[in-house]
User: What shape does this take?
Amino acid sequence: MGRLLAITLAKRGAQVDLFDKGGPDASHAAARIAAAMLAPLAESAITEDAVVRMGIYSLPRWKSLIKDLSTPVYFQQDGTLILWHRQDASEAERFAAHLEKNCLNNAALHAPQTLDNQALRNLEPGVADRFNQGLYLPNEGQLDNRQLLDALAVELANSSVNCHWHCETNPELVRSLGSYDQVIDCRGVGAQSTWNKTSTALRGVRGEVLRLYAPEVKLRRPTRLIHPRYPIYIAPKENDIYVVGATEIESDDLSEMSVRSAMELLSAVYTVHSGFAEARILEMATQCRPTLQDNLPAIQIQKDKGLSDLIMINGLYRHGFMIAPAILDCAIEILEQGDSKTALDLGLKISKKTIAAGAEVCV
Assistant: This one.
């Protein structure tokens, strides 16, 4: 969010300083660990309608945002495949019924398609020997999060954003400098102390992810395996790289992946495709997703006499890449117009909408 906002504002003529406790590679950020799936229908089974609407809005926006970058970023919109083993058929029926209900309530969602074995073989031949049926969710997509972060770092330099890498700070200190008209806080879990001073508590939700090199697999699209205890996702990237995850733990622990999580992820992914048996484990990574009390994103605006205006953006939870363009456009509207019709239409929570547009911005 910080990089997207800094680039967008700089291109609109603002003077922008960006402070980041990490470096251009974003090695400290949850965004680097994410699978970056853009799947509003799949996520509709576990999240609110407002997040789904933001995801639908963001899909075409990602295309235009990536197109404007000087560095290529992998983007794919070939849908999501849902699979399940025979013993989990009842779970799959409940999941499918939930998706169909959500499609009836939101005409912008594309209805799921039921696949028999032949249809599954035509769509994703690599899994047809192990599964007799599945669901296809059309129009959903994904991007390569690490390529995007690198491309945004290049764009920051091209846009003359003054980047202060490896410079941890806080909005209170920056506001007290009196050098900026607006300060925008996009620190994720790093903003915990600031958010906890308000009535909206911020917490970290731990996630654990594998990155595998599996040249024998050849999955074409993000694939999700329904399971009552550990539903996994497999997101294929370029050059036979797969991002695999599932775990969601109510903890802000950033220690290494547990043996149990690794065993469950590896055993589950092997049941999807036998080619994962010879895959190479490139990385076992953990991070914490920034999450507000209701698991929904929010923008808070603070305007205090004698201080820079403060805009706090947080709570993107597990949907960061899926909804980031929607949050970006809402924040730009607030900065330029003092309000956001897009936020109202999408259901994004904004509190204290009193901010004046300015020429100098700190992200």
Notes: The longest strand covers residues 280-292. The mean pLDDT is 94. Residues 40-47+76-142+204-292 form a domain with the D-Amino Acid Oxidase; Chain A, domain 2 fold (CATH 3.30.9.10). The CA atoms of residues 20 and 261 lie 31 Å apart.
